[in-house]
Amino acid sequence: MSPIVELNVGGEMYTTTLSTLKKHPGSKLAEMFTGQPKLRTDSEGRFFIDRPGTYFKYILEYLRSNQVPTQCIQDVYKEALFYDIEPLIKQLEDSPQIFGELVARKQFLARVPNYSENIELMIRIARAEAVACRRSSVIVCAVRTEEDVARCQDALNSLDMDKKSVVKFGPWKAAPGISDLLDCIQMDIEAKGYKISFQPHVAEKGFRFKSHDFFYKFLFTWW
């Protein structure tokens, strides 16, 4: 193989050296160019990698100069994981953005029972109610402590709604509070491409609990 390599990464063109691509022998990127080439070529004979080309420049810059990117950290991290470049992965995981996501937020959400399943349930409920509507709503019940569970159940029994459509989060044992959980729910649903907002759910007069102690209405806007 020629020591000069031309690449087509997701439609972005790059020229680099074989030694740069093979700088970390244990990586998937190095494996692509070890021995007989394992990649297809485009019409111009450039090796084609079907990944986002925008972020490959940061991967190359690191391989060339050991410079850790300071932009598009989350996206570059995904590419570093794909190419399995361990030194870059470790340095990115020490960055505030990745550290905060992996160590702080994700570890908190791991302590919230069935968090991921509840996110998917919210989306299914919202989509089921979206027929001929501009918006659909999902009621969330958030309880932080075991003591609140019984109170929440009493409140739920007093609500005039289909209890099966209420999605319950908690309890959990971690420092973040209910407002932090609600922000995470919004963040993760928005990351899936949905436009969403939330507000306290205010029940009718005579309700024996402050409904906003537990219940929140998430609004999905479709158009």
Automatic annotation (TrEMBL):
Highest taxon listed in the record's lineage: Eukaryota
Residue ranges occupied by any BTB domain in the UniProt entry: 3-100
One matching Pfam family = KCTD_C
Spell out the coiled coil positions from the record: none
InterPro entries the record matches: BTB/POZ_dom (IPR000210), KCTD7/14_C (IPR057890), SKP1/BTB/POZ_sf (IPR011333), T1-type_BTB (IPR003131)
Listed GO biological process terms: protein homooligomerization
Name of protein: Potassium channel tetramerization domain containing 14
- Species of origin reads Calidris pygmaea (Spoon-billed sandpiper)
- State the organism's lineage: Eukaryota, Metazoa, Chordata, Craniata, Vertebrata
